[in-house]
Design brief:
Elements (H helix, E strand, L loop, with lengths): L1 E5 L3 H13 L3 E5 L2 H8 L5 E5 L7 H10 L6 E5 L4 H9 L4 E4 L4 H13 L10 E4 L2 E4 L4 E4 L2 E3 L3 H11 L6 E2 H9 L9 H14 L7 E4 L3 E4 L6
Parallel strand pairs: 1-2, 1-3, 3-4, 4-5
Antiparallel strand pairs: 6-7, 7-8, 8-9, 10-12, 11-12
Length: 227
């Protein structure tokens, strides 16, 4: 499998490249954000991307690649540790993050998890509908009452999971496993935070609220207010 490593620190890039090659991965290097964007357009199985890069930073690289419809999984390397900093990498289109300093074994585990993550809920109909809410997997477009709703990558993934299971209560742990990856701390409130984001955008001022809380368990989406 081919991995693109975008990292300007030669000590870190050399350490990671040697370790991954020892695990039989093919690794290409990019040393700044602009080079990362250019190489990231090529077919890779995974991109490992540092946030603090010269020319263009990791956030800009993520945004540029997603804007060009590059769907390659992106793992961010970051020295930032606050919850908001971590959530922000998802807003820019990343699939996972790893906080520096890190052990190579943890990096390898994250990479393997991303490479094998193939959620079954993405393997069905191209368009999902709940009441007047529609989601198109191919165009990644969401509409409520015919009006387009702009969602971040993770917001879209979360809504897609809910709409793939209409009326079904999904636990917070299940949502974490399917949208963010199995290894996340089950005590984190990232699911609640993103449900809040979705409610503002999807339900907003609408009379019918579709995203519902299942007390002491998780969430579901339903057009039946009493369900």
């Amino acid at each position: 499998m081919r991995i693109l490593l975008v990292e300007d620190d030669e000590r870190i890039s050399s350490f990671v490249k040697r370790g991954l090659e020892a695990e039989n991965y093919l690794v290409d290097l990019a040393q700044d954000g602009q080079e990362g964007i250019q190489k990231g357009m090529d077919p890779y199985d995974l991109i490992v991307l540092d946030l603090l890069l010269p020319v263009k930073n990791g956030h800009e690289v993520c945004q540029a690649l997603r804007h060009e419809q590059v769907q390659t999984p992106i793992l961010i390397l970051t020295a930032k540790e606050t919850l908001q900093d971590k959530l922000r990498v998802f807003d820019y289109g990343a699939d996972d993050y790893l906080t520096k300093p890190f052990a190579f074994e943890e990096l390898l585990a994250r990479i393997k998890a991303l490479l094998r993550r193939k959620p079954s809920y993405k393997e069905s109909a191209a368009e999902l509908t709940v009441a007047d809410l529609t989601l198109n997997r191919d165009s990644r477009e969401v509409r409520r009452g015919g009006k387009v709703i702009s969602l971040t990558r993770k917001e879209f993934d979360l809504l897609e999971l809910l709409m793939s299971n209409p009326g079904k209560a999904l636990s917070r742990v299940s949502i974490l496993e399917q949208v963010w990856g199995y290894h996340y701390d089950t005590l984190t409130n990232v699911v609640d935070v993103y449900i809040g984001y979705l409610r503002k955008k999807v339900d907003g001022c609408a009379k019918q609220k579709l995203i519902q809380t299942v007390r002491d368990f998780g969430y579901k989406i339903s057009d039946n207010q009493s369900s």
